[in-house]
UniProtKB/TrEMBL annotation, chain B:
Protein species of origin: Salinisphaera orenii YIM 95161
Keywords from the named record: DNA damage, Transferase
Protein's UniProt name: DNA repair nucleotidyltransferase
Keyword flag DNA damage: yes
GO term, biological process aspect, one: DNA repair
GO MF annotation: an example: transferase activity
Endpoints of the signal sequence: none
Keyword Hydrolase in annotation: no
Superkingdom classification of source: Bacteria
């Protein structure tokens, strides 16, 4: 049959003939769909897992945390630090942190605390309003927002703010919110696995369903990822319990995306 | 030296125009009661068109304009408004004299006025015409009806404002005597003697005048001609902005207040422009009908002078306010005026991105604080201290220096360490790190800090209190969370 041909070639990851003709019809390859502008997560293992190779740069990323204090914030810190140092006059807003933050710890992670305003709103509505205002002011390269009770509307507002100001917004929520619908571009669940913490992609633009095991406490950093089986990095890991038998990152259910 | 040139502005309807509020719609009369007589001292334009005049009995005015609202006169508010306007005039001159109608010691027949010297600044503002146009435009925006007069001495300039409109440009000598600020007895006597104009009076021999009317008249004439210093008390720029706005009607809703405050803040901005100043701290006092007060403190992030910015900040602040009673008066008090910094245009501005207004962060910060409270926005500080609880603090502005360090510290630090009931369930990862400090104050600590993981997978920062009594409760405390 003549019509079977295009499907067959698509499996071999190439569109037939004139690709622009397909694109005009709104058809794109999944990998192209995922090729949005991104913010590197600074964890190479995580980057490989995420569509496009990092957090979406102009959208909301949700972290669904099972237990607060299991490394969810330090996961983000290097990425935030890199963003701050890449944009010298910029700020990152920390909105409604649930506990007092410790200044020396942030400074030790390379974050310039002069450029980290803390905003404490009375309720979610005020916090979202504050983020919208700050995003509109320019000069912000990201926001981190802690809130469990965000509504769909509030998230949508955040998503719009992120798109307009072209900066990522990271939202920490309880894992219990995973069941709710969310307009966030990326939803990552951080749970406790058998071997350290597990990061699971609950929703993303592009191929989905990947997960990553092995976030572990290390001796000189709060958390490290279990390195992939390269001996050099493996020696880095000294703690007996953290160093697992094979020391590999769990493979995601999908083949890893092509490196960008 | 430039020749002195004085501009006099007389405000015939000042008792009404000085009030802040919605006088645009509806007609209003301001009346003064003296003894048993109640007469009109100011009226809106449509009442004037209907034939209402100064000094007319209220009953008479009611006959001509039956649906007019009647307000009683408040001299204190008029005075405050005129003082504000003097601040505005400061941008044109540092010789500003103001006088309210009916106030001693200067006779101010025919309304409140403002006189200031403009000769020195004519060049700066592009000549007399341009300056007049600019001033007229400002006054129109404030809604102050005025009559202007220009002459080389303040007294004559004022006399010109009182001259009938048809003779505004007449020679000085042809000014009617009734325009001059002479005392009533002298004026009546001169008019009875057949004198009509200033020129006729000046032609008389001084000795005769002195004998007949005393030295005071002669002094007045000398001042009129500029042979003597004008002797008017001059306005001095205050160190703080402190004023009160009388409202035309009581304001019940926040929405109405927004409207009124626009006017109030425009006055503030005009004053700041005149004074070439900026303020960072402003207190707004809403005075209610029952004389209770609501105070709104606005602490801006940086000195500001822009009406639009004040307005946005105030509107955000108002969202947190519930009006308990109608507002009849608004008071403003600022901190010391600061010299205005001229904005430097940036050579390398922040990269323009769609949907953002670059450089707007200080303004947004003010608005956030106005709406959420001043303490809602803060920065972390890292004081140089060894005790963990003293090494992290928050302040209302960013720290001067960014600390660096590589000590292993938790991201979250509990303000009050929590006792750990069952330390045996934890997996100790690293430690101990001895922290022993603070012997000089009452909060001395002797602790061994450990990193440990609990069964839920959290990485904790715990310490063992070395001073804990043996056999007491568990000496282990949870102090922080690596998150």
């Amino acid at each position: 049959m003549r019509s079977a041909r295009p499907i067959k070639t698509q499996r071999r990851h190439s569109l037939p003939g004139d690709t622009s003709q397909w694109q005009r019809l709104g058809l794109r390859r999944a990998s192209q769909q995922a090729r949005q502008s991104i913010v590197g997560s600074s964890w190479s293992a995580l980057d490989r897992l995420l569509p496009g190779g990092g957090y979406p740069a102009h959208a909301v990323t949700e972290f669904l945390v099972e237990t607060a204090g299991t490394g969810e914030f330090s996961l983000l810190l290097t990425c935030l630090g890199q963003r701050l140092s890449a944009h010298p006059d910029s700020r990152i807003g920390l909105v409604a942190p649930p506990r007092p933050l410790n200044a020396p710890a942030l400074a030790a992670q390379g974050l310039d605390i002069r450029r980290l305003p803390l905003i404490a709103g009375g309720n979610d509505g005020e916090c979202v309003w504050a983020i919208e205002q700050m995003a509109r002011s320019g000069g912000f390269v990201g926001f981190v927002f802690w809130s469990d009770g965000l509504t769909n509307t509030a998230l949508r507002k955040l998503q719009l703010a992120a798109e307009n100001a072209a900066c990522p917004i990271f939202v920490y929520r309880d894992l219990a919110c995973a069941g709710q619908r969310s307009p966030a571009a990326l939803r990552l669940a951080i749970t406790r696995g058998d071997r350290g913490q597990r990061i699971e992609v609950r929703k993303c633009r592009g191929p989905a369903g990947a997960r990553l095991d092995g976030l572990q406490p290390g001796p000189d950093r709060p958390w490290i990822f279990m390195p992939e089986s390269s001996p050099a990095t493996r020696g880095f890991e000294t703690h007996a319990e953290a160093c697992n038998d094979d020391g590999t990152v769990a493979r995601s259910a999908f083949p890893p995306l092509a490196p960008r | 030296m430039t020749t002195a040139l004085w501009l006099a502005l007389r405000f015939p309807h000042w008792p009404l125009d000085s009030r802040t509020g919605e006088t645009a719609d509806g007609s209003w009369l301001v009346v003064e009661t003296r003894g048993s007589r109640c007469f009109v001292v100011a009226a809106t334009a449509d009442a004037v068109a209907a034939g209402v005049r100064h000094g007319m009995d209220l009953a008479d005015a009611r006959l001509r304009q039956p649906d007019a609202g009647v307000l009683s006169r408040r001299p204190a508010g008029e005075r405050a408004a005129l003082t504000r306007l003097a601040g505005w005039a400061w941008q044109y001159s540092d010789h500003v004299h103001l006088a309210c109608a009916g106030e001693p010691p200067y006779d101010t027949a025919g309304g409140s006025h403002l006189v200031f010297e403009i000769g020195a600044s004519l060049r700066l503002f592009g000549g007399r015409r341009a300056l007049r146009r600019r001033i007229a435009l400002d006054l129109k925006r404030f809604g102050h009806r005025h009559v202007a007069g220009i002459d080389s001495t303040p007294q004559v300039a004022l006399a010109r404002t009182r001259a009938p409109r048809s003779r505004a440009r007449i020679e000085r000598a042809a000014l009617p005597l009734s325009c001059l600020a002479l005392d009533a007895g002298t004026l009546a006597s001169l008019q009875a003697s057949g004198f009509r104009t200033l020129g006729e009076l000046l032609a008389l021999p001084p000795a005769t005048l002195m004998r007949r009317y005393g030295a005071a008249l002669l002094d007045d004439l000398d001042r009129l001609q500029g042979h003597r210093p004008h002797g008017l008390p001059l306005y001095r720029l205050p160190a703080r902005y402190r004023t009160r706005h009388e409202l035309t009607g009581a304001v019940v809703t926040t929405q109405g207040l927004v409207f009124v405050l626009r006017r109030v803040l425009a006055d503030l901005a005009a004053f700041l422009r005149g004074a070439d100043a900026a303020i960072q701290h402003l207190r707004l006092i809403l005075i209610h009908e029952d004389d209770s007060r609501t105070r709104l403190d606005l602490r801006l992030n940086s000195p500001a002078h822009d009406a639009a910015h004040f307005e946005r900040v105030v509107n955000d602040r108002l969202t947190r306010v519930e009006l308990t009673a109608p507002v009849v008066e608004i008071g403003l008090a600022s901190e010391r005026l600061r010299r205005r910094e001229q904005a430097q245009s940036q050579l390398l501005s922040e990269a323009a991105r769609p949907g953002v207004e670059p450089g707007a962060w200080p303004a947004v910060l003010d608005r956030l604080r106005a709406r959420l409270g001043h303490d809602a926005v803060g920065w972390l500080h890292a004081p140089d201290a060894h005790r963990p609880e003293k090494a992290s603090a928050t302040g209302d502005r960013p720290p001067i220096e960014a600390p660096t360090g590589n000590a292993m510290r938790p991201l979250w630090l509990y303000a009050h360490p929590r006792p750990i009931a069952a330390p045996e369930t934890l997996t100790f990862i690293a430690g101990p790190e001895r922290i022993e400090s603070g012997w000089w104050d009452a909060q001395a600590v002797r602790r061994d800090y450990y990193r440990a993981r609990d069964r839920r997978g959290r990485l904790l920062w715990i310490y063992r209190d070395l001073d804990a009594a043996r056999g007491g409760p568990s000496p282990y405390y949870l102090h922080g969370l690596f998150g």
